[in-house]
Amino acid sequence: MGKISQDIIERIKGIVGENHVLQDNLSLEKYSKDETIGLQSYPDLVVRVRSPEEISQILILANDHSIPVTPRGLGTSLSGGSVPVKGGIVLSMERMDTMLEIDDRNLMAVVEPGMVTSEIHRLVELEGCFYPPDPASKDSCSIGGNVAEGAGGPRAVRYGTTKDYISGLEAVLPTGEIIKTGGKVVKDVTGYNLTQLLVGSEGTLAIVTKIILRLIPKPKMKVDLLAPFDALEPAAEAVSAIIKEKIVPTAIEFMDNPAIRLAERYLNKKVSFNNAKAHILVQLDGNKEEEFERSMEVVGDIFERYGAWDLLVAREPEAQNRLWEARRCIFEAANRIGIPYETMDVVAPRSSVASLVKAAEEIALSFDIDPVCVGHAGDGNVHVLYFKRDDMDMEQWRIKLPEASKRLYRKTLEMGGKITAEHGIGVTRKPYLSMDYSDRQIEILKGIKKSFDPKGILNPGKIFD
Ligand SMILES: Cc1cc2nc3c(=O)[nH]c(=O)nc-3n(C[C@H](O)[C@H](O)[C@H](O)COP(=O)(O)OP(=O)(O)OC[C@H]3O[C@@H](n4cnc5c(N)ncnc54)[C@H](O)[C@@H]3O)c2cc1C
Fold it and tell me: How far is the CA of 263 from the centre of ligand 1 (A)?
């Protein structure tokens, strides 16, 4: 795959208009990275498309000339998904950002992929509807990126993840054909489930150009509770006790003390209960006053029983935002602090969260690495951030980090878990895929890729080589 000729560049300008083909250094720099720390690779060209027809024409050209094409939403991937590791074209979806329809008779919305996720929340909520998936990056990521990564978020505990709300897709294949899968239907067993195959395919099979989202009625009441604990184990046991009571909160998040301190450094202000060993943050929602109040009481009692030494209750949006501020900023904080680090996105059965965090900490310390653990305690997904210590040189870090990561992945798999819950394999987890998947499984994945993308032009270098 070589450089893109001037003739092809002119033809692309003819398709999308000159203003939407970017070649200047500043633009190439912007599109050479996402939020994955330490990963950068320049594209030859950035093309900001507006329609499936434009994408189709560009993909036909790219396929004919074997030019790599990397689809890009808003570049918040944490696995290197939108980094053009083989150069070529970055196809930016940022101009395809329209809410096409909110259909309250079918409880569906039809959206373009470049829409910011929280803008979808806002617009459907104005109509009394609710789109539950809420990645912590919801104000800066796109729904197309959420579909491609199968994104989750805190509300997954009660409502599930992006995959549970995708009812249909329009997508352009690497060979240029435009396909439609699913629809505004509740049931559909027509052949293999291509909709769900594209969800989580990390932009390697097709470019998603339209998304039919399933909505639910907006819950009438919502409350957030934050409890500080002196140790992680009782905090994790409190989470299990809540689930055992048959109460399914909207979200159950946790932060360990290094995470609380990291947030504090980044926000440049004191976080409540900053000397706690763990914070548990619970969100409850509901429609029936009595049931809602009872759930709140039960959660409060359980926290007390398991040793929480205080409880913050937030019923108003402003107070709720304040309660979530520290939890939501962790990745920005980690990225801006300027210390080399790597994120693991491991998930285990939710009853194993405490053991998983304990293992993550022990492994880090045995490699002289500083661990930070935050995550979705309610669904077993722990984000483990391994930071380089000041006194470790870069050479040692490059040797120790993959060994420590591998050990954590092995431990996670032994617990019946998975090496990535919501951030994807991308580039960063590629070396570890074979720890979970057999050769035959990887062969099947490669076969699927080949049938969608015979020449391997779409987002090459991701998931596997
Ligand atoms: C601070 C922070 C918090 C985060 N919190 C969460 C979280 O709670 N849960 C979670 O799941 N993730 C989280 N993430 C990761 C990230 O936000 C998600 O993976 C998100 O879905 C990426 O969306 P994006 O628009 O930025 O996509 P990009 O980074 O631009 O792209 C991601 C992948 O999708 C592909 N892609 C993008 N658009 C399309 C399209 N239209 N068609 C086909 N492929 C496409 C790209 O090729 C790439 O492989 C977080 C990231 C940050 C920085």
Answer: 22
